[in-house]
Amino acid sequence: MIRNKSTLALVAEVAGVSLKTASRVVRKEPNVREETRRRVEHAMNEVSYRPGVAPRASVGARSFLIGLVFDNPNSSYVVDLLRGATEQTRAEGYNLVVEPIRTDDVNIVVNIKRLVIQSNLDGIVLPPPICDLDDVLSILDEFGTPYVGIGPNNNVLVNRPSIDDEAAAAAMTDYLIQLGHTDIAFVKGRARTSTTGQRLKGYERALRNSGLCRRSDFIVDGDYTFKSGLHAGEQLLRLNSAPTAIFASNDEMAAGVMTAAMKRNLIVPDDISVAGFDDSPTATMIWPQLTTVRQPIDEMSKIAVSMLVSQLRDREVASRETKVEYQLIVRDSTSSLKQS
Question: What pLDDT was estimated at residue 57?
């Protein structure tokens, strides 16, 4: 059998087991059936796999360090993320190692691998969009480094706390429809991020359920920054048949949309309603204050750390998703559609 690469994923494939099971065998962990252990060890010999020097090679050796990597342009999101993780790691008797990572860096896998080795991490928390990257998850599985994601995730095997982003976006869109708006535009979030896809699905579902047409020119790109929201708002408000309400995938972009409206001498919400997502500090620092979806980032960050620590203490913890409640927060940036 000729193979180009001898990785742990290849070992798992040859042995007919999951990557996590192969990883447990490599780390010589207990609670693995002897027959399974023999199959994995035979596969390791077949493909000439030799485990690298990893921080978790010695079972039971704890550094009591948990990593948190992030790549998010929204500063308020990052602040809430760090606040929750810091509080929970201290409560659990661990310390937090924080590292900003660029997901567009071709060396992201190498950088995370280096972080795990150099910091001797017991485990790592992965918020979006990093938890959506299969290459990152594969290297952590290969190293036997436990991890937990935050938010909706494309990989169903990843432990994660999240709100129901699709349901939350549908609820906000329904609210705008109830106000009488039928021309509702949507500003998407960052590409390749699972939250972006889920929120778009919720918006589209609400339109469909209300019998409203989905207009492709009403769905524009953003990247969770104020600047992208400003550009999106300008694009939407230049349309010959402009929307009467705009729902942005986060509060920073909603603030950008409101600025675009004011530049055109439109009054929010008299001339156009604007809604956001997150209930970040931005939502109450602008005027009019923003109607938005509240998702408790700090609480989800705490839950993620707690789930990770449980995983460290009990290697047999099953993968699971913990749903956290969202809340629709109605403020002054939205109002009933005025009939002309």
Answer: 43
* pLDDT value at residue 12: 85
What are the φ/ψ torsions at residue 318 (nearest 5 degrees)?
-75, 150
98-113 per-position pLDDT tens digit:
999 998 889 999 999 8
Name the CATH superfamily for 65-161+297-324.
Answer: Response regulator (3.40.50.2300)
Q: Which residues of the chain fall below pLDDT 70?
A: 1-6, 27-31, 50-61, 153-158, 315-320, 339-340
Residue with tokens 């047999």: 316
CA distance 25 to 19: 10
CATH of 165-295, one of 3.40.50.920, 3.30.1330.10, 3.30.110.70, 3.40.50.2300: 3.40.50.2300
Burial code of 12-31, b = ≥16 C-beta within 10 A, e = fewer? bebbebebebbbbbbbebee
Task: Quick: pLDDT tens for 174-196.
Answer: 999 999 999 999 999 998 888 99
Write out the two tokens for 219. Answer: 């769905």
Confirm if 215 and 242 have CB atoms less than 8 A apart: no
Q: Where are the domains of the chain?
A: 8-46, 65-161+297-324, 165-295
Angle at 191 between CA 195 and CA 259, to 5 degrees: 85
